[in-house]
User: Fold these one by one.
Assistant:
Number 1:
Amino acid sequence: MISEWVLYVMFYLLSAVFSAFLAYCLYVHHIHQKYDHIPGPPRDSFLLGHTPTFSRAAKSDNLIQDLFLEWADKYGPVYRLNSFHYIVIEVHCPEATKTMLMSPKYLKDPFVYKRLFNLFGKRFLGTGLVTAADHDVWYRQRRIMDPAFSSTYLRSLMGTFNEMSERLMDHLEEIADTKTPAVMHDLVNCVTLDVICKVAFGVDLNFLKQTDSPFQNAVELCLRGMVLDLRDPFFALFPKNWKTVQQIKDAAELLRKTGEKWIQKRKTAIENGEDVPKDILTQILKTAEEEKVNSAKDHEQMLDNFVTFFIAGQETTANQLSFAIMELGRHPEIYKRAKAEVDEILGTKRDISYEDLGKFTYLSQVLKETLRLYPTAPGTNRWLHEDMVINGLKIPGGCSVAFSSYVSQRMDMYFKDPLKFDPERFDVNAPKPYYCYYPFALGPRTCLGQVFSQVMKHTPHKHNCTSLSPSEFLDIQNMQANVCILLDV
Ligand code: HEM
């Protein structure tokens, strides 16, 4: 009698699972019918869509962005990708880029950004500035952060930027004296981390002099963890990966705990009326106080943003500097011209003023061209909630739209001879790229740290250009290997 009941239950359970699976397959079929008029590469399978191709690309040494570029050449500037019932439309058309990125109406795709809320189960970027998809949640934070990153405020922090680049210079001179090669990518990684710690949080850790710093290792591990988690949602399921996963979770915790400590210390100092550094943290706490932002949820969000600044700001800037140095090393004529400009503007001056930054016309062109070829945060995603016509194709609402700056900045439709490193593209008299160049994203969700990173990028160059020749300190191969891994997110 009992076994009969068990059989009944099993039968109904199996029927329910089978019906649910069938219903899901019908839903996927319906989604295919809805979007299959949009061109795209052939799917690997009905259910998985293009996911196996992504996994294969992720495991190979190739950049996944190069695959997207290849598809843009083959299928045009608008093409479709499938993963189960989820549709991503890759868009590289200036008009649609302008419409969607410039308007607050199109929110970030929650599916993509929610995946960074946690890192293997540990709160990571949470609902901080990069990951907040909800407009109100994002806007409230951005209002508090904006003044701290304004040019007016950053002007007052020039002393620290100069001090940090001076340190890099001293370090490079020490290395040059010993006639050993310097791995520039490692050095700029240390300097950018130092700058963010000092300028943003008033903490001087001097990573250039530290070997094996737990904080620096934690930032690196989290960045690696992000790539692993995003590329392979099943990574944590395999026992062989458990040790790595635990290390990444510990790293995420260390970052948050450090943020907690630094923020609490500053709050107490402000409450006690102590003299506090005039840095970004003080500015943020002051604005938060004025806006009465002090609930437990706000506190968690402040920690989300602490982690966000390091994750969004350090590697992006360090990689750009590394790529710029690499290209300067490869193009002696460009290097010579940039050096002449720096010499002319600075002469014998040691420190760069905020006003000087605007005078480095050619150096800025070099940096812009670097971000064209190597956008260190290579895109953004929006959720399309309503039907839209893009490039003559009707795109039904209910899908994700991906904008890859890497792809659009390398398309010969927009940039002639795209693989050539040519700073002349950004000459004042050259035609301005029209919504096909957006290394810092565009519109309301544009990078908060753009000015910050520009100051950070110009200051070390004064030294590279005045005092050392690239052959003295470049280890291009090593640097290239490092930066390529990081680009391929
Ligand atoms: C070369 C350097 C940098 C590049 C290329 C870059 C690029 C970008 C891009 C493409 C986005 C949009 C991301 C998305 O939509 O998913 C972004 C957002 C952001 N970046 Fe940067 N970034 C750089 C440096 C920095 C620095 C130094 C900081 C801070 C210290 C920073 C903080 C942020 C923040 C907070 C956001 C979110 C803005 C918002 O949605 O309100 N970035 N960045």
Note: Residues 129-130, 142, 196, 308-309, 312-313, 316-317, 320, 371, 376-377, 380, 439-441, 445, 447-449, 452-453 surround protoporphyrin IX containing FE (CB under 6 Å).
Number 2:
Amino acid sequence: MLRTGITSVSKRSYTTFKPLISAAKIRLNKLSEETGSNIYGKAEFMNPGGSVKDRAALYVVKDAEEKGLIKPGGTVVEGTAGNTGIGLAHVCRAKGYKCIIYMPNTQSQEKIDLLRMLGAEVYPVPAVAFDDPQNYNHQAARHAKSIENAVWTNQFDNRSMALPVPQEKSQGKTQIFLADPPGSVLYSYFKSGGKLTERSGSSITEGIGQGRVTDNLKPDIELIDDALHIPDEDSLEMIYRLLDEEGIYVGASSALNVVAAVKMAQQLGPGKNIVTILCDGAYRYQSRLFSKKWIESKGLTNAIPEHLKKYATLD
Ligand SMILES: Cc1ncc(COP(=O)(O)O)c(C=O)c1O
């Protein structure tokens, strides 16, 4: 999701979210010059677990502790495309909890390897729709129920991880745009005023598309001013451009956000300050994103400009 700032219209506390507000912002110089607006990326890939989801991981565990849902020596169970799991694995090690992760088996090997290295017990399961009882989230929920002193942190419907929204938003100075990949329902949901949840295609981005409108997003939909649908071709090209032009090595969701930031700059006209989130680094996807064979298997070879193909060095 693309945000131009951070706060809450509904009086959520700012102080607890201080790190989120103060995370490093990087000005993307070339894209800023091209658009005539300042485009910044929040460097969430610099977090301890390497992604924006470290924040969510910390808050869902703190929330479970505050509600008495987990006691010392307990187990945290979560369904995740990987990033929240990696954050949870760090938090659990620090706090002495066991960490059990269910994830779709379509996710990159790098994330599975890292989770296991951090001490998590990982169950890659077939990727099936949310309404199927075998969906990774439901399997995580059942596992947590089946053992003593365990909590399913339920990241997608857990309001304790809702982001604060910029104060300027309530004063009409800030606009928030949502950036959505193919295969996700959020673009059509927003554009149809909540009537449609159309879903077509799939995406090379991992973990950011949604097949449903989750509880942690629903109440904040009204804060969104516009939505942008970003094709994979644009996201892949931007991964390579960011590496070449800005010296930044980030994954497909960050690239998707930056493409959206550029489109937003074009839509709003020059002289704006636009902030988006650089969600995570490319390291955890590099066997895919920089593999000629994998890119070809996705039919995306032509998305990479000729002069940037030199970065696709893996077979
Ligand atoms: C880069 C990225 N990957 C994945 C996710 C989804 O979280 P998870 O990996 O835990 O499913 C998000 C959520 O914002 C994200 O920003």
Note: The beta strands are 25-27, 38-43, 75-79, 98-104, 121-125, 150-152, 177-180, 226-229, 273-278.
